[in-house]
Amino acid sequence: MTFLNVWAVGFAGIAPVIVLLYLLKLKRRPMPVSTLLFWQRILQENQRRAFFQKLRQLFSLLLHLLIFALILGALMHPTLDRQITEGASTVLIVDTRARMAATEPDGQTRFAKAKAEATNVVRQASALRQMAMISVDAGARVITPFTDDEKALRETLGKLSATDASGDLQSAINLAGELLASRGGDRRIIVFTDRPAETKPADKKIPLEFVTVGTARDNLAITRFATRPVLSSPETSEVLLEVANFGTSPAKTNVELAYDGQLLDVKPLSIEPGGHAVQVFPTVPRPSNNARGWLTARLDTKDALASDNVAYAVLPVEPPKRILLVTKGNWFLEKLLAADQSIAFELVTPDSFSASVAAKFDAVICDNFVPSDFNIANPGANFFFLKQTPFNTSEPALDQPLISDLDSRQPVLRLVNLQNITLLHAASLQLPKTEDWNWQAPIRSFEHPLLITGEKRGSSSRVAALALDIGDSDLPLRVAFPLLISNTLHWLAGEENTPVLSRRAGETLPLTAGESVLTEPQNPWKKATAKSPVVQSLFQPLTNGFYAWQTPNGTRWLAVNTFSEAESDLRQAGTPTSAGLALPTVSLARVTGWPLWQYLAAAALLLFALEWWLFHRRRTE
Hints:
Keywords: Membrane, Transmembrane, Transmembrane helix. It comes from Chthoniobacter flavus Ellin428. This is von Willebrand factor type A. By secondary structure, this protein is an alpha/beta fold. Helices cover 23% and strands 30% of the residues. α2 (37-75) runs antiparallel to α11.
C-alpha cells in the first residue's frame, strides 16, 4: 500500500484528545433532599452496574477512535497499487489530422471516437502511472508533459479538435520515444488513430499499441485548385480544378465556382472509382481594386469528409500601374487612360516635365515630345513616345504608309488587329543599334519601322516609340487602339512578382518585419470575426479558409487547403480496437471504479450514523 498524502499523519495528534475526553470524571452537584431512603437503593443498583457501564464507555471510545482512524486514512489517500520501484510511463498520441474529421455511419466523427478511447486510458493515471500526451497533425508536439493528474489530462483532451492538416505518425512516435528514453520502469506508447502505421519507435523495447477507430468510407475530394493569369490576356485568369473519387462505385457531382461569394459557374462531373476528373475554367476576370479576390470551388455532394469538398484560391489584386502622361492635350489618350481600371495616370504639360518626377512612375507617355536631357544609355524611366521620338530621322514623313509586317508574337501586339487601318502620315524612324539593348520593330511599313520596342539587357529599362500621330489616323476609332496602348503600357511597366498566396494546411509561412496574419480563417459563407488573434513571426495555419495577411503595402489574402490524397482516401481503415488494460499495476480503483480513500470515507460516515443510533438507544455513552 502506498500513501499519497503522507502529510495527513500530523492529524493523528488529535487521537489523545479524544481519549482525554473519556477520562474526565463527572463533576456532581450537591443538592439537599428530604430523605435518603430512595437514593440509597439507587446507589446500590448503580454499584452493581458499574462494570457494564465501564464496558459501555470503552466501546464508545473504541468506536470514536475507529471513526477517527478511518477519516485519517481517507485524508492520507492510500492506494493498493502493487509496488513497482520506478512506476510506469505511458505516452498517448492523439491523431488530429484531417482524416480524423470523417463522419462514421453512427454520426460520430473518428476524432470523437478516438477521444473517447483516450479518455478511458486517462482514467488510469496515478502516482505510479504517469502519462504524457502528444498531438499529431502536420507535425508532432507535446501538449501535456508527464503527470499523474487525471483532471489535467482530461481537460487537455477536451480542448483538442481535428485539424485540416496532413502529416505522418512517425514524427510523433519518434518524439514519444525521446520522452520515454529517460524514464525508468514500464514504458508504453499508445496511438489513437483510424488506421495503424507500419512504424516503430527507435527503441524496439518500448511497446507500441494502436487503438484504431472508424470504418472504410467512400469519399469525393478536391485535390487541386489553382489559378494563373492567361499569358495572352493578363487581365483574365484560368482556373484548374481536380476532383478525385476515393470510392468503390462511380460518382456524379456538380462543382460550383464562386468569386467573392457570388456564383460564377457550375460544371457536372462524372468520375469512375479511383479516378480523377480535371476541369479548366478558362476565363475568370482578374479582381478589381475593391475586390478581395476570393475564389472558391465546392462539391454539392455530402460524403464522409466535408473539409475536402471545398477548396480556396486567391486571385491576386494587381495594383494599378502609375502612368505619367506628358502632352499639350490629347482627348483620345486622356479618355482611354481614365477608362482603364488597371491604370492610374497623372497629366502634365511638356513645360512641367521633370526627369526626377518621371522616375517615380511605372511608365511615361510623351505625346509629340522628347525630353531635352533624354539619354538612351540611361533613360531614367520607361518611355512611350508618340510621333516625335528619339529615333526620328531627317527624312520626310511617310504619306499614307501601309502596314506590311506585323509580329503578333510580341506582347505589345497581343490581340491587336491593324487590318484596314487608315494612316495619313507617319514619322520616319530608324532602328537603333546599341549593343546593350535588344531592339525590335513589331510593326513595319516595308523597310520603315512604325513601332520600335527596346529592352536593356540585364535591366528593367524599356522604351517604345510609335511613329504615328493618333489624330492623323482612324486608329482611335478601332478596337485595336485601347489594346495597343494598354499592351504597351503593361509591357513597359513590367509584371511584378506576386507572392505565393496559397499554402497547404500545416505549412509554415515565415513573416517579415511589419507583417502579421489573423489566426482565424474567414470564408464567404461565414461572418468575419470581429477580433482575432494575430501572429507576427511564423504562421502555421491548421484550418482551411482565407486568412488576412497584413503587409506594409496593404492587406493580402492567403488561401489554405488540405490537398492530400492520403487524408481524403478513407477506404483504408483498421479494425476498431480498444486500448489494452494490461498495465503493470493493479488498483482497487481499476476493479471497482472507486479509489480506496472514498471507501474509507464512506465507512466513517456509516459508523457515525451507527454511533448516533446507539447513543440515542442508550447503548453507548
